Amino acid sequence: MTKDAKTIFWNGPMGVFETKPFDAGTMDVARMLAGSPAFTVVGGGESVEAVHAAGVAEKISHVSTGGGASLDLISGAKLPGVEALR
Hints:
The chain is an alpha/beta fold. The protein is 42% helix and 15% strand. The chain contains four helices and three strands. A three-stranded parallel beta sheet has the order 1-2-3, with helices on both faces. Strand 2 (39-43), helix 2 and strand 3 (62-64) form a beta-alpha-beta unit. The radius of gyration is 14 Å and the shape is globular. The mean pLDDT is 90.
């Protein structure tokens, strides 16, 4: 499924991943990202928690707690903190 992807961006776990059996989908996505040859980005605090819970955080290219800010950045919005550095 991801073999042809060059970049995969994931923001937000699916459902109540902290509780079994509702964690299955989120854990599967985390493992899929970890096994992908693509550049993988996980954004958002709960997503970071999920890849750590799945034991695959070290296999993700970039892990960021900035979920909303990450989405703003890739959508082209100006980020006040980044703008202040310019």
